[in-house]
Amino acid sequence: MARFAGAMKSLAHASVIRWGGVCLAGGALAFLVVFSYLAAKFNYPDVLDGPAYVVLPSLLATGASGRTVWTIYALLPLIWIPAGVAAFEALAPVRRGAMRLAMFFAFLGAIAMMLGLMRWPSIHWRLAGAFASATGAEQAMLATMFDGLNTYLGNFIGEFQGELAVSVFFLLTSFTWLRSSQRARWIGWMGVVTAIAGLVGMFRNVTTVVAPVAAVNNYLLPLFMIILGVALTLWRDSDLAAPEPMATGHSL
Fold it and tell me: What is this structure's pTM?
């Protein structure tokens, strides 16, 4: 009976890791599909730098389908939650504290990015409807509100805080990966590069100097998400032979 219970626990453990890997890799592909749709229909992300009198009518012109796509896009960051749990379950035997912190950062990144993106099918959609029938003075007020929401929810929460959290999640996970006995060490090093590029690129709203790094990170991020997701999907506990040492009765 004890052996059966242990086998069931091991199976559930593996399922959590694999499901998180599927969410991470599948989420990356979904991001690319939605991003491509918005780029074609809404000139995204270049439209983000446009004034309200250009962006809001363009948003309203996408219709119900555009609003639906924005809603899906806003919910996609939630994949970071199962991904964070999966990474913790897989690598906690190596560095439990670091992976617990990584899991918390994955959760923070999911919520921050979701809040940033959710403004488009909700608040901005309402602003776009009001802007279409507003007078000149009213449009100026709506434009100010639009700019303020973009700065707060978009730049500070969605982009800066969200990307900071995801990059730290990648960095902690990658460092832990490199401290394990995993043979595919290139995955860990690629994660470190992706995380550093993300930490640098998130300052693109502060200075244009980091714009090239941010552009490169736009390709590195989904690529590493897919690679790490596939690695977790194919995860085997037998590949991990570097558990964190147990505490002994001796103290220094």
Answer: 0.88
Question: Cα separation of 154 and 112, whole Å?
Answer: 9
DSSP 44-63: TTGGGGS-HHHHHHHHHHTH
Would you call the peptide bond into 45 cis, given omega within 30 degrees of 0 as the criterion? yes
Residue 193: other Cβ atoms inside 10 A? 16
What pLDDT, in 10s, does the model give residues 48-95?
Answer: 788 999 999 999 999 999 999 999 999 999 999 999 999 999 999 999
